[in-house]
Design a protein that fits this description.
The protein has 102 residues and is mainly α. Helix content is 69%, strand content 0%. Helix 1 runs antiparallel to helix 2. The longest helix is centred in the C-terminal third of the chain and has 39 residues. The chain starts with 25 loop residues before the first helix and ends with a helix.
């Protein structure tokens, strides 16, 4: 399997005839941005919990809290997946309608 065909590195939306630019809802961009900011913050909280006991002397977060934080990350990832699917559908509709107008 090459870099371009591996499912974690390939672009699932790239295909011949796909437009380079399209129209999507700007609210989706904001949602993705907020979700990634939240994932970053949760990752920092969980990461600091693992490393802070040595540097600050504080107790690490209980396992159930870390588990809940990781569940939050999973939910945010599901949300991002949903939004990107919707953005893709909108982009495809715009591309089809632009193709029909030509």
């Amino acid at each position: 399997m090459t870099f371009n065909t591996h499912p974690l590195t390939s672009d699932p939306w790239a295909h011949e005839g796909a437009p380079e630019f399209s129209t999507i809802r700007t609210s989706h961009i904001g949602s993705v941005n907020r979700a990634t900011t939240a994932i970053h913050a949760i990752a920092r909280i969980a990461g600091n919990s693992v490393t802070s006991p040595d540097s600050t002397g504080s107790d690490p977060l209980p396992a159930y809290v870390v588990n809940a934080l990781l569940g939050g990350i999973e939910s945010l990832c599901d949300h991002i997946s949903y939004i990107t699917e919707e953005m893709q559908e909108i982009a495809e509709m715009v591309a089809k309608s632009n193709g029909a107008q030509e």
